[in-house]
Each structure stands twice: as structure tokens, then as C-alpha cells.
């Protein structure tokens, strides 16, 4: 179990996260949903120290780490356990797909180049890009670039794969391929924490769904329960305002 406790964050006096707690069971997909500005992406960025929390800890089972810390050793300890998939891919434009996946293995994990390239090739094959190793980002579609980003994160063998709205920058026709890759990673037992606006996908691919608003957890639970029989009025209001939730079948 990965435990997140008491995470708070304010920007210019506005509280975005307010003492948020969250448990992520191993080999589960936990998906966070909620309206824009509810603190979803801020939480993910705090976990990777792209933002510093005002308070809070994360514990991967080997001792809690203070998310306000500036200690390099503590930050490296947490970052070594997390693979991060960004909204806008964040690929090196002057590197081909294989190099984008291999270089973090060389420079962050200290692997020899041949070993790193072998792992990179395996992960590109895993996301359906075995024939695109030599292609540069400018020659790839948005969906293909995002799959390279996923391969890069998974190649690091993280304890937790964090995905921040992985389809938000994609044209609709590119979304399906990326979601299918994520779905398969979940089936393979990858522990994931994901923020998404794809309600049907959250319903189908998650083990646990968390609805947050105003920096608080409003409701959480099994996807079938939360989507079909929400306990909280605010959860029901949010889901009823989300068009693609209407496509969810009556039974899972």
C-alpha cells in the first residue's frame, strides 16, 4: 500500500489541496476525477516534487517522506519510485523514440547503453511502436508521442506510474490507442495513479475511483458503486454534467 497523508497546497492564498489523504493499493489502478481546479494535477505534481507541498507525506512502505522537504536524498528516493506521464509528452525533440526511452535509463539508472536500448526497444514494442524506434517526435502523431512517453516511464520500472490527464492533448481519434495501452498496463499489474476526464475509461479500467473537489476527497470507492450509485449529491451532480458518463452501461 502506498499512503499519501495530509497533503495541503495553497497558491497566492488560495487553498488548492486541504489535508488530502489517499491510499493506493499495489497492483491497482486508482483514478482521480473532479472538476477543473479541484487540485487533481497539483497532487500528482507534488508527488514528483514538481511542486512543493505546504504539508504532507508519502510512504511507499519504507518510511514516510515529507513532501515539503528540500533534501536531495529524500527527493531522489521518491522520484526513483515514480514514473510520470505528462499531458504534453515532454519528449526530447532532437532524440528519436528509442533514444527518448533509453537515455533516462543510462543517465538516471546508470545502465550501459546496450542494455538501455534493449529495454527501450522492449517497451516500445509493448506500447505498439516496435516499428517506430528511429522516428523523431516531429514525425509522430500525438497519440504515438504519448505512447513513447508511457514507454519511457514504464522502462524505469517504477513502483507507481502517475498519469496526468494522458489524453487531454490528443485529438479524439488518437485517444483510443493510448487508453488501450494504459488499460493493458493495469491488466499486467502496474500500480497506477491517474487523473482523467475520460469518465467511461475511469469506470472500465480502474479498481478505485476518487472524486475530489476543493482540495478534498468528496467520495471514493469501487467504480460501479461510485458511477452508478453515488452516495454524495455533489458526486451525482458532477457525473450528470459529464456527457460521456451517459455511455456507461447499466452493469459492469
From TrEMBL:
Residues 2-239 form the ABC transporter domain. It comes from the Bacteria. GO terms for cellular component: plasma membrane. The keyword Cell membrane applies. Keywords: ATP-binding, Cell membrane, Membrane, Nucleotide-binding, Transport. It is a peripheral membrane protein. SMART domains: AAA. Its main location: membrane. Pfam families: ABC_tran. The keyword Ubl conjugation does not apply. GO terms for molecular function: ABC-type amino acid transporter activity; ATP binding; ATP hydrolysis activity. Transmembrane segments: none annotated. InterPro entries: AAA+_ATPase (IPR003593), ABC_ATPase_HisP-typ (IPR030679), ABC_transporter-like_ATP-bd (IPR003439), ABC_transporter-like_CS (IPR017871), MetN_ABC_transporter-like (IPR050086), P-loop_NTPase (IPR027417). It is found in: Cell membrane. PANTHER family: AMINO ACID IMPORT ATP-BINDING PROTEIN, L-CYSTINE IMPORT ATP-BINDING PROTEIN TCYN. This is Amino acid ABC transporter ATP-binding protein. It comes from Bifidobacterium imperatoris.
Amino acid at each position: 500500500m502506498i499512503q499519501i497523508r495530509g497533503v495541503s497546497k495553497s497558491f497566492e492564498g488560495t487553498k488548492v489541496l486541504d489535508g488530502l489523504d489517499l491510499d493506493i493499493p499495489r497492483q491497482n489502478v486508482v483514478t482521480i476525477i473532479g472538476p477543473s481546479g479541484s487540485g487533481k494535477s497539483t497532487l500528482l505534481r507534488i508527488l514528483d516534487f514538481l511542486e512543493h507541498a505546504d504539508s504532507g507525506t508519502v510512504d511507499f512502505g519504507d518510511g514516510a517522506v515529507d513532501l515539503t522537504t528540500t533534501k536531495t536524498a529524500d527527493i531522489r528516493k521518491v522520484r526513483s519510485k515514480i514514473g510520470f506521464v505528462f499531458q504534453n509528452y515532454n519528449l526530447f525533440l532532437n532524440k528519436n523514440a528509442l533514444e527518448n526511452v533509453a537515455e533516462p535509463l543510462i543517465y538516471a539508472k546508470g545502465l550501459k547503453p546496450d542494455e538501455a536500448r534493449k529495454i527501450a526497444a522492449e517497451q516500445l514494442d509493448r506500447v505498439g511502436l516496435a516499428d517506430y524506434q528511429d522516428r523523431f517526435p516531429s514525425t509522430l502523431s500525438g497519440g504515438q508521442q504519448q505512447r513513447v512517453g508511457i514507454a519511457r516511464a514504464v522502462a524505469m520500472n517504477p513502483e507507481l506510474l502517475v498519469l496526468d490527464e494522458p489524453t487531454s492533448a490528443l485529438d479524439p481519434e488518437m485517444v483510443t490507442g493510448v487508453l488501450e495501452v494504459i488499460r493493458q498496463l493495469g491488466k499486467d499489474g502496474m500500480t497506477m495513479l491517474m487523473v482523467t476526464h475520460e469518465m467511461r475509461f475511469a469506470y472500465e479500467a480502474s479498481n478505485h475511483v476518487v472524486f475530489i473537489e476543493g482540495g478534498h476527497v468528496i467520495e471514493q470507492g469501487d467504480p460501479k458503486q461510485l458511477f452508478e450509485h453515488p452516495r454524495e449529491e455533489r458526486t451525482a451532480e458532477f457525473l450528470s454534467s459529464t456527457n460521456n458518463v451517459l455511455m456507461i452501461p447499466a452493469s459492469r
